[in-house]
Specification:
It comes from Achlya hypogyna (Oomycete). It is a multi-pass membrane protein. This is P-type ATPase (P-ATPase) Superfamily. Keywords: Magnesium, Membrane, Metal-binding, Signal, Transmembrane, Transmembrane helix. The chain is built from 7 helices and no strands. By secondary structure, the protein is mainly α. Helix 2 runs parallel beside helix 5. The longest helix has about 40 residues. The chain is elongated.
Length: about 190
Amino acid sequence: MTKHIMGQSLFQLTVLLVLTFYGDVLLGVPSGYKTGPTVHYTMVFNTFVFLQLFNEVNARRIHDELNVFAGFFSNKLYVAITVLQAAMQVLIVQFGGLPFKCVPLSSTQWLICLGLGAASLPVGLVLRLIETKDMPKSMGLWREAEPADASARGKELWTRGLARVRTQIRVVKAFKRSMGQRRLAIEN
């Protein structure tokens, strides 16, 4: 997870800083520095949102599986939320105006923002291809890969947790019984 967080944040930060400081020149739009809503900063904002949306697709697979689209349409709620997020972004950018400090973008500008955002997918693929054991240990961020019996460890933790809950329920029931007996003794 650390590998993906660090890799995506470095990538996204680089894209956003380049867009913020050089985007006006690279995109051929007026600078948004110290002015009201501009195409420049609307594109920075739009790219940021789409970097996040595409990275959500990457985040669906947490064990470095290569195909992040496997089973994509099987979770209807996820698909609905993703479509809603994208639709809201379109509405905010195209019709948000001053409240959101956005200006409508052209179709070309939309394609640029979507393309930059979609670049999170190949970056995620590259990160999934990097073995955790190949990462420098000196960073102190990488753990050894979990042993093959990680599921056995998970079962053990669940069993322990259930045993604790059962014990707590027995204690509560015993306390209630003793309170009931005490009440009877007081009433008699």
